[in-house]
Design goal:
Elements lengths: L2 E8 L6 E3 L3 H10 L6 E3 L1 E2 L24 E2 L8 E10 L9 E11 L1 E12 L3 E7 L6 E3 L19 E7 L12 E12 L10 E11 L4
Antiparallel strand pairs: 1-13, 2-3, 2-6, 4-5, 6-12, 7-11, 7-13, 8-9, 8-10, 8-12
């Protein structure tokens, strides 16, 4: 059976949304494209950490590389920020389809990854339909900065990888004008530090594939 790449989602200041309030708030912003007092488009902060690793596509892919993002260019110690990016499906037909989602992630300092599918239903709102990551997400490092290492190796030196094969599920009856989204979201924490330099950042590549059933 052939694989078809539907989307490549990369961290960037044009389609990655942040929230300082909650992951739900970030997801809502990503799906609706609407900023609020607590949410908005992420900021490209560049390689703020001199020794941060880089996620890059091979040049042969011809795809834009991800940016390092945060909610602003001045991260705070012991700060938690939530991020989300959404891909809208073009139809609501999922019968006979199996999907594959693959994520590569860097954060300074730690994070939990969530890969999910949502419906945005008129007069109802945004509803979770499918979770690809485990219940509670896929964590990398502690989201508490208590007792963290002050000498290498540090958690931010890691690049985390996740992949999940899943069968999407949707309600039997779907109201008109309902929209359907694949969403990647993160809870990211920046630890406190004893030094003067304390950069924070998120960089990711998430790819979505359809496993098309031949008939």
């Amino acid at each position: 059976m052939p694989l078809s790449r539907l989307a490549s989602l990369t961290s960037n200041s044009g389609t990655t949304w942040y929230s300082t309030a909650s992951r739900t708030d970030a997801i809502t912003a990503a799906i609706t494209g609407t900023a609020t007092a607590t949410s908005g488009l992420a900021t490209n902060i560049g390689q703020a950490g001199a020794f941060w690793p880089n996620l890059e596509y091979y040049a042969a892919e011809g795809l834009a590389n991800p940016e390092y993002v945060w909610n602003d260019a001045s991260p705070a110690a012991s700060e938690t920020v939530y991020f989300a990016q959404a891909y809208q499906y073009t139809d609501l037909i999922v019968a006979g389809i199996t999907r594959l989602a693959v994520a590569d992630t860097f954060t300074d300092n730690a994070h939990t990854l969530f890969i999910e599918e949502y419906l945005n239903i008129p007069l109802v709102g945004i509803t979770l339909e499918t979770s690809v990551t485990p219940a509670g997400g896929a964590p990398d490092g502690s989201l508490s900065d208590a007792g963290q290492a002050d000498s290498p190796p540090f958690g931010w030196q890691n690049i985390s990888k996740f992949s999940g094969i899943y069968v999407p599920t949707l309600p039997v009856t779907i109201p008109a004008l309902t929209t359907y989204f694949f969403v990647v979201s993160y809870e990211v924490v920046n630890y406190s530090t004893n030094g003067d330099v304390n950069p924070a950042g998120l960089q990711f590549i998430v790819e979505l594939y359809n496993d098309l059933v031949e008939v």
